[in-house]
Amino acid sequence: MTQQAESLDSRSSGTAASAANRSTRREYAKVAFASAIGTMVEYYDFTLYATATAIVFNKIFFPAHDPLISTIAAFATFFIGYCARPLGGILFGHFGDRVGRRNMLLLTVLIMGVGTFLIGLMPTYAQIGVWAPILLLVLRLLQGIGIGGEYGGGMVMAIEHAPPRMRAFCSSVVHIGLPAGFLLPIALMGGLSAALTDEQFLSWGWRLPFIGSIVLVGLGLFIRFRIDESPDFEASAREKAPPKLPIAEALHDHWLRILLGIGAKIAESGLFNIYAVFAITYAVTVHHLPKSLVLNGILVGCLAECVTLPIFGLCADKFGRKPVYVFGALLQAVFAAPFFWLMDAATAPSIWLAVSIGLGLGHGAMFGAQGAFFSELFPARVRYTGLSLVQQIGPILGGGLSPLVATALLMHFNAYWPIAAYMAAIAVLSALCALALPETKPAAGRR
User: Which domains does the chain have, with CATH numbers?
Assistant: First the structure.
């Protein structure tokens, strides 16, 4: 780390403390709710696409004689959406650090919602041939750009309105939008797949949750129109003019923190997608279990994480961000093989337990500490950009690749152990990167 980076970070934290204290509890509650809704829309869109990729898109957009080959093709579009995220992070981070966070958050939720809504109206491969996967790819890229700017802006707004001594807890509450965003589409897709015949579900049933996403988008826009600009951004802009090119300043002054943050992010996003996305493919393909059983297991896991996230947030405020984050990573390294032992038992309780431990404990610990940990690595003047780079490049190497890698390993080896080894390896990598980052928990005397 450079001395300049440390100085900027320290000065920004002091500004953050005084600015956050000026934010009223009522205003913070509005901002936290607005950020949580944005996170919920983000992961509603993400989960809907991921779930449809595993059980619908591989059949109606990527037909093939081998179901694993069509699944890999479908997961490739899932990965390409991740590749668009850094572009969204850079674009919205640039303007978020220059002109303010609030207006960017209005745009991101709108872009995400439009992309998801239009996917629900798309014709299939049987109707328009090769244009179907091409259009799906274009809309997935649009989703990715919106999602790329959403997380950084929403989390920065929440962190910058929160009291410094409660930032991890407050960010963990915002993060409840993730499992909540998973719960709703999985409940909808699971309910529809159980209530409808396979023919009805593949024809029109899967479209309903995509089209219905417009309701969440409208709610998100309504709330975000009513929140104030970040006090940290306003204070930072008064002290010094915003950077002309935030990404250049972030990369020049904080390049090592960005690289280590990306490494620390890989396991959090990658293993989440193993539990919540690849688990569906594994259970259906290997054990021929009904989709509804696995979807219900993911529902239970998401409910467990809704409970554990604020607990781990409180732990991160008390004991520090790094210990909690590293605990979550190492727990998932140890749990990689037992996860598949439970999955291979092929019973409802064993699958529910596997996903609940993975999401509720392993991922919950990492995600509960992550919002404050990664946000506090950067000063306010480049925080939106710095956080977005970490949050959107890391998932390309983690969450975007993990279902694709896991499916390819399963296809080649026809065994779980290479996948478990891959899971453990990225978990250890992220733990080492997190250990190399500075502890960002405010000093005891800071208010």
Answer: 3-436 (1.20.1250.20)
